């Protein structure tokens, strides 16, 4: 009786997960269609028509999913169906279909790197989140340039190099995350995974990082004053 109940529940869960995945894919395709329609409208200046010999000039995101050379099809491998012969924009930022695929692969790569690093004797791992004060009126491009510029300034400085040697930083993995809200506007921040050759005091790490990050941000934009919790 127990096995029968468990089997029925398992089948229900699989069906529910399949329906949820199908719904998610439908929403992603709908998002892609809206995005491509907007890009095509912009490229055609509202006419909805783009000359054939200028299709290659469209942004890659606008052409994602288009057939390559007029040949596309569906193949089944390992019980899974997939489209072949179609162009992929491979955008990790703006494509509703390519972004989750790239994100999942990068997550697997990072997980593998962490497992490999932790296997070494005495190795440690640190995690940083670096942010900047912002307002709803700050443009996205300016925020990206500010965060990227501050990181380059900090990493290129003598203080960082000396501190990295002292902390035992051997490698790092950096990722920029961008969010938006009606009240806060664009929020760009960095997540940095530090691979250390020793254990390190996280409280001291936060204090040192905040001082270096605040200096770098003020160097790029003297009007920005990072708060204490902007480096954690």
Widest sheet: strand ordering? 3-5-4
Count of helical stretches: 6
Query: Compute the gyration radius: what is it?
Result: 23 Å
Distance between the termini: 52 Å
For the biggest sheet, the summary is:
3 strands, antiparallel
Number of strands: 5
C-alpha geometry = globular
Mean pLDDT: 87
Strand content: 15-25%
| Helix/strand structural class | alpha+beta
Low-confidence stretches: 1-5
Task: Write a structural description.
The chain contains six helices and five strands, in the order ααββαβααββα. The protein is α+β, with helices and mostly antiparallel strands and 232 residues long. The strands form two sheets. Strands 3-5-4 form a three-stranded antiparallel β-sheet. The chain has a two-stranded antiparallel ribbon with strand order 1-2. The radius of gyration is 23 Å and the shape is globular. Mean pLDDT is 87; it is low at 1-5.
Fold blueprint:
Layout lengths: L1 H42 L16 H4 L9 E5 L2 E5 L13 H21 L5 E7 L9 H17 L1 H10 L1 E13 L3 E12 L5 H19 L12
Antiparallel strand pairs: 1-2, 3-5, 4-5
Helix pairs in contact: 4-6
Short description:
This protein is of the alpha+beta class and 232 residues long. It contains six helices and five strands, in the order ααββαβααββα.
Keywords for this entry:
232 residues; 18% strand; globular; two-stranded antiparallel ribbon; alpha+beta
